[in-house]
Automatic annotation (TrEMBL):
Alphabetical keyword list: DNA damage, DNA repair, Hydrolase
Single biological process term from Gene Ontology: base-excision repair
EC number from the UniProt entry: 3.2.2.-
Family: Belongs to the DNA glycosylase MPG family.
Group of enzyme by EC: hydrolase
Organism: Lacticaseibacillus camelliae DSM 22697 = JCM 13995
Keyword NAD: no
Gene Ontology MF, one: alkylbase DNA N-glycosylase activity
NCBIfam families: 3mg (TIGR00567)
Keyword DNA damage: yes
Protein name, per record: Putative 3-methyladenine DNA glycosylase
Amino acid sequence: MAARGLLGAVLKVGDCAGLVVETEAYLGVSDRAAHAFGGRRTKTNEALYGPAGTVYVYQMRQYCLLNVVTQPATIPQCVLIRAVEPIAGVAAMAMRRGRSGPAMTSGPGKLCQAFGITLADNNRAVNQGRVQLIWPGRTPALIRATPRIGVPNKGTATTAALRFFVAGNANVSDMKKRAIDPNGGWQ
DNA sequence: GGATGGATCAGCT
DNA sequence: GCTGATCCATCCT
């Protein structure tokens, strides 16, 4: 699954970069939690119907969320990037976030603020705009799966284990202190 | 450590 | 009007 394949990839925006450590899969028309559920297509989610590698930025309240389309055009599936481990441009990210440490990029809204990702980056091809994904990055020692976050009361969409993260990485959202691996969860 | 409520806003109904 | 793929401060145990 594409959501697992993104773990360990390098996300690069301008001079800032980080390793993807947490993702969620959104399975298109059959997924009640997806914006394209039932084939819904509006100006806002138009990017979902682009080719694989299209950036889909969704704004929620005062934050933006970063997605990457994973299937050919007209098949609206995507992966939400929920958290990264900062590896470059840390000072710039800390300034934009007003915070440092794990709280800087350990959530979908947080990492977009840290990298300066906005709706201006929506509906553009990865590696042809400011947002880039680069392989190889690092290899997770262990990938864990749980239900997605913020998807209540939607039957199987709520219970399905479609959230994936690098086990033990300190930048994963809601990571318990006891569960942190000193090696960052990498091989 | 866990639960709660407010901030805040574009887009859809 | 209403509704979120959120975040943070501030309670409480």
